[in-house]
Predict the 3D structure of the following.
Amino acid sequence: MNTQCPSRDFIYQDWILTETKFNPEQLHSRGTVFTIGNGYLGTRGSLEEGHARGVPATFIHGVYDDVPVVYTELANCPDWLPLMIVINGDRFRMDEGEVLQYERRLDVSQGLLSRSLRWRSPSGKIIDIHFERFASLADQHILGQRCQLTPHDSDCTIEIQASINGYAENQGFNHWEGLDQGKTNQGVWLQSRTRGSQIEIGMAAKMTISGAEATLQVSIVPGYPTISASFVATSQQTITVEKLVTVFTSREINQPVTAAQEKLAQLSDYTTLLTANKQAWDEVWQKSDIHIEGDPTAAFAVRYNLFQLLIAAPFHDDKVSIPAKTLSGFGYRGHVFWDTEIFILPCFTFTQPAIAKNLLTYRYHTINGARRKANHYGFKGAMYAWESADTGDEVTPRWALPDDYYGEDVRIWCRDREIHNSADIAYAVWQYWQVTGDDEWMRDYGAEILLDAAIFWSSRVEYNKQGDRYEIRGVIGADEYHEFVHNNSFTNRMVQWHLEKAVKVYDWLGRNFPEQARKLEDKLELTSELERRWQDIIKKICLFYDSSTGLIEQFEGFFQLKDINLQDYEPRQRSMQTILGIEEANQYQVLKQPDVLMLLYLMRPSAEFPYNEKALATNWNYYAPRTDITYGSSLGPAIHAILAADLGKSTTAYERFIQALMVDLEDRRGNANDGIHGASAGGIWQAVIFGFGGIQLTEQGPIANPHLPPTWTSLKFQLHWRGHWYQFDLSREGTGDRGLGTGDRRQELIISPPSPPSPPTPPSPPTPDIRGFIFDLDGVLTDTAEYHYQAWQKLADEEGIPFNRQANEALRGVSRRASLMLIIGDRTYSEAQIEEMMERKNRYYVELIQHITSQDLLPGAIALLNELRQAGIKIAIGSGSKNAKTVIERLGIADKVDAIVDGYSVQKPKPAPDLFLYAAHQLGLQPQQCVVVEDAKAGVEAAKAGGMWAIGLGPVERVGAADIVLPSLAGVTWAELRTKFPQTAKR
C-alpha cells in the first residue's frame, strides 16, 4: 500500500519513503529525514557528490569535544561519503546540468538509502546514476556505498574520485586535527584526533569497479585521502562502483587506525555485507515492528519513527545515551535530556530491554558528574544535569544568542532551575525494573542511581515551619514558559514518588542483598535518620490539589496569573513565548507543554495519586486549552494523544498523534533541519501502544483495552514483560470500553488546596518581606582586600608597573580581569600574557589566604550571622571571587550559610545583577525578598539592578545608592535593621 504526502513529493509505502522531487530549499530538512545509522553512528542524508549549500555530518556516539569557553558537543566526524563523478569533463552536481528524472528512497526495513536520477550534463551527455548507502547493523564499524552509472545515449569517459574528508565542521568549528594518513594495498586511511577531548578516529576506505577496465590511483592530499579511476563506458553499459569504509575510535579500541585498516583488509564484497545488514535488521524488526492496517500513512510513519530511534540506540555501548536530536543533526549539540528516560526509553524497555539497560547504565557511569553538580550548588547526593554529555557534568549553555543581532543574550535557566530530571531518571530505573524483573542490574546499578538522587532531594527540599510542610522553590517544571516558580506540582509529586520508591528499594536491597546494602550505606552515607527524613518529606511535601474537583494547580500562584484564550492568536506560525516575549509569557496561564497532564500520564500506569478518571477529565478540560500544543514543545502532542484516547476524544487523539507523527517527515515545526525530534518519536510509540492499544500493566502481564482510530482495521505488536513475549493483534471489533483506574490513593497527602481561578490583580508595591541575606565576602565579612592588595602589589613589582594602596582602592568590587586592566593602563600585552598574569596573581592570593582563620572575621559578622539563622533568615555568600569557598571554609562559617555563589557561577560580573539573582535563586527566594550587604559601588549597583534591598558598608560617597548605609557590621542586629526597612520602603 502507498499514499501521497501532502507536500506532493513524498510517497509512503509500508517500509519505504520515496522522494519524487529534489528541492534545494529543503536540503537541510531532508538531510535529517534521510538519516541512516546503526546505533554506533548516524549519517545525515547529504549528497555523495556534495552541494554548494550542503553540510555533511556523521556523528558517532560518545565522540564529544569542547568549543572553547562556549559548550561541549558531539563532533562532526570526518565525512565518509564523498564520491565525485566527472562525465566527459563535466562534474556531476544537482545544481548544474539538468535533472531529467529523480527519485530518492529510504527503505527502513534494512536502513538502505538510495537515489536514482537521469542527468544531462552541460555538454549534453545523458547518464543514469544510481546511488546506495548503508551503515551495517551486522558490524557497526562497516559502511557501504554503491554507485551504478549507465550512459543513456552515447559512449563517454567517466572519472570517479572516492574520498574521506577530514575537514568536517560543526557549523564553522572544526574539532579535528589531522595526525596521519596514507595508503595500503586495499585503499586509503585517515587518522585524526579531537582537539580537546583527544579522541582518536581511524577510517579506511577502498573502491572497486566492475563493468569496465579501470586502473585505481591514490592521491594523499592533506586531510583528504582519495582513490580515483577513469574509464570509458559505452552506451547502455552499467558500470558499478563500490566503496567500503571502516571506522573505529579510541573510545572502543586503543589503535583505531590499525583496527580500521585490518577490518578493511578482511571485508567481503558489498553484496555480502548488505545481506548481513538486512539479516540483522530482520532480527531487530521481529521484536520492534508495529503493523497498522487501514491507514497507510500511519503504517509507514510509525515504522519510520521507530527506525530513527533504532539507528540511534547504542546496541553495544552502555557509556552513551540517545541525544535529544538522536545522531541526526546539530540541534542541542548532541546533549542528552530527560527526553531519553521519559519519552524514548519505554519503547526499548518493552521491546529491546538490552538497549534499555545500556541507556540506563549510562546514567550510572555519569553519576559522578551528577554528584559534582549537586556539590557545586551546595547539595548532597546526585543532581543529574539538565543537559548531559560524556561525563554527566552540566553542559547546558548558560546563555543563548538572540535572534535579533542587537538584542540581549538570553539566559538559559534550565541548567539551574529545571531539576525534575533526577526524579525522571529514577522513574525510568523503576519502570525498567518492574518490566524486566532484572534484579541483578537493580542491585549493581539502579539502586545507587535511585538512592543517591533521593539523597539530593532530601537536601534540596526546604522545610516551611509555619506551614509544617516541605517545599521546593525556585524551579522550572515541565512547562518551560514559567521560569521561576515555587512548588511546581509535577516536580513536587515526582520527588515524593521518587522518595516512596527509594524507601522500597532500600528495604528490598537490605532484605535480598544485605552485603550490597552495606556497601551503599557506607558509600552514600545512608542512615535510618535519612530514611526517616524521606518518610517525613513524603508525608508533608506541598501539593496543590482540590479533592472535590480533582483540579491540580500547576504551581503556587498559577491560578492568579492572567488567563489566555489561544484562539485569539490564531492563525499563527510561532510559539506563544515568541509572540508574548519571555517575561510576558511568564505572566500568563499559557503552557509550553503538558505539565500537570504530564504528571497524570506518568502516574497513570499504576493509577497512583493524583491519577484517577475524574482528575484526568478535570485537568484536561482546564489545561489542554491553555497549552501551546502546536508551536510550544514537540514533547506535548503524543502525550495529549494518549490522554485524549483515554478520555474517548478519538478525533483529538488522532489529530495530536498525526501532529507528532509527521513533525519531521512534513517538517511541521520548521526545524527539522536541526535533527530528528527524538522525544516525539518515542512518544509516538507510547501513543500507539498505551493510547490506541490501551495497554495496561498487571501482575499477570500486559493487557489491551484498545481505542483504535476509526480508519484503523488492525493493530499488531508485541511486548516483552518479565522474560516473556506477549503478542497483540487488535482490531476494530475488539475495541472495548476505557479501563481507567479509579480510586484516589493518596488524598491524605493534600497539603494546601488551591483557591478557584480568579482574575489577576495588579501587583502590590514592594514591601519589606525580607527572607534572605546575601553577603559579599571581601570587606563585609572579612578583609581579604589586604591579601588581594599584596598579591597585586607583588605582580606589579615583578612587571615593573607603579602600584600602591591608593591605586588599589579603585579595584574594590572589580573583577580580576578588570582590575588587571586598570593596573596595566596603556601598556600593551597579548591575551596570553594577560591570562598568565591573572593566573599568577591568583596563585599569590591563594597562597596568602591559606593563613586565614576565624580570627579574620570582621567585628559583628559572626553575631549577625547567628542572629539571622535563629530568625529563620536564609543566608548566601555572593562574591565575585573564584576562591570564595576556600575563604569561607578557612573562616569556619560554611555551616552558617545556605548557598555560596562565586566567580564560577555566572558569566557577567558586578555591576550586572546576575551574581545576586543567582544567589536568590539558590535560596529559593524572589529578588525583592533579599538584602545584599556590600562595601563597593559596583556591588550596590548590582543589588539595585536586581531589584533587591542594599546595605552599604563604608563611606557614603562609595555606597550612597544603598538603601541603608552603615560604617561596618559592628553592633548591627537584625532587630534593629528590621526597623529601618519600612522607612526605606516609604521613599
User: Anything to note?
Assistant: The chain has a mean pLDDT of 91.
